[in-house]
Design a protein that fits this description.
Layout: H1 2-15, H2 20-37, E1 43-49, H3 60-72, E2 77-82, E3 103-108, H4 115-125, E4 131-133, E5 141-144, H5 153-165, E6 174-180, H6 191-202, E7 208-213, H7 223-226, E8 231-236, H8 243-253, E9 274-276, E10 279-283, H9 293-306
Parallel strand pairs: 1-2, 1-3, 3-5, 6-7, 6-8, 8-10
Antiparallel strand pairs: 4-5, 9-10
Amino acid sequence: MQERGGLAREKRGKTQKKNPAEISRFFASFAGYLLRVIPKLDAALLIVGHGSTVNPDSSAPSLAHAATIRRRGLFAEVACVFWKEEPALRDWPLLFPDPTIHDIFVVPNFISEGYFTQTIIPRELELTGDLTERDFPAGQRWHYCPPVGNHPAMTELLLQRAREVAPGVPERETSLLIVGHGTGLNDNSAVAAKQQVAAIAALDRYAAVLSTYMEEPPHIADWAKLTDTPNVVVVPFFISDGLHSYQDIPVLLGLEPEPTAAASQQAVFRQNPRHLHGRALYYASAIGTEPRFADIILEQTAALALA
């Protein structure tokens, strides 16, 4: 798994130099072609999310994207499993009992290629690599796709989210902060955020573009020290508006004195801008709530076929 991840990162480093919108359109077109030739009655899609035992909003984007794809009728079945809620990863033997389903495409709805995609998911689903052939259920081939956060369209979506949350704010007078989780379990968890920051900085639109993290430096809590522009836009590089983006990060930013209610019960994003430390601070919702993620999930199945 490590070797595959390294090769994938090397390839992504090269493609980031190209226009992400052009790459996204190419993948969308080719993904549509590939999905049309996949026998609908032979294939299923499994979206893997993190989930949460305490916040109902954590799984909402994965379930919404699954419903969107299901309505398109591209697969015989579309299902979701989660690490922290039901249906659980460990329940995979019960998911696709239909003997006519031979190919399962597993797409991690995770923002980076790190600890969960390289360790937890392969272990819990008993995957041996990009392709796992099962004796049970008989004749099934499980294809392990890249996580959604690796897709080149992420750059375009992050810029779009920043513009939406701070419309009309001069970019040359603005610092853009992309917030990741960061973890000591696997250094690769920060790679995706750093790649996006490098791609956006190369466009030379914002006065500064920085990657910041909750659990490793540079810490998002130090945002006022890390920036010197009158405007600061913060975009959480997360899949859902769960505990991190709706409760933890607002406290670290100084927007809230303590963790607040779940995403569906409060309005931290509807109060932009906030004026702190003499700056105008704009806080966006998690990038994974973007409806276009349904297309990216489909395109990741095509990316595996192209590899």
